[in-house]
TrEMBL record:
GO terms for biological process: phosphorelay signal transduction system; regulation of DNA-templated transcription. Residues 5-122 form the Response regulatory domain. It comes from the Bacteria. This is DNA-binding response regulator. Keywords: DNA-binding, Phosphoprotein.
Amino acid sequence: MKPIRVLVAEDQGMVLGALSALLELQGGFEVVAQVMDGEAAQQALRAHSIDLVLTDIEMPGLTGLELAAWIRQQPEPRPRIVILTTFSRQGYLSRARELGVDGYLLKEAPSDELARSLKRVMRGQSVFDPSLEGLADADTGPLNDRERRMLRLAGDGLTTAEIAARVFRSEGTVRNTLSDVIKRLGARNRTEATRLARERGWL
């Protein structure tokens, strides 16, 4: 039986290496690519045949949720997508479900349980950590994808000009969008707006 070809996306190098090693020790998996951000994951997906993407949420460049959205737009055959995170936030879980990911698991799970869950996903099942059941119907929040990306880049310390270059919008559009987001969240500035949105899982 062919091993499941996996791409692991995780921005903490030690966790990335340990997770990849644990999967291969479980048997039935071949970790084809290890990447530390969403844009590197896109490049790896273009270069390799991948059956399953195991991704964290909060990463530089593209988040795991933005990566999932991009994968869903690609032609078939597409890899299955499982989120593996420390965050059990309502906003994250709701957006993951909205994007149609195949699983949402927490990092605290034992490695053998993770392996079983991933194999279930490859058999066509959806696998969500049972501790998240009460969060399933949560609101995805007041921000759209463009606003989330701009606010996250602002929170990363990018200037208005740098954000405009990243999202292919004018500086005026970026300023107006961020000003509107700050007011909508009831925040005083970009930093506070980013903190509030992260706490609620809206980024």
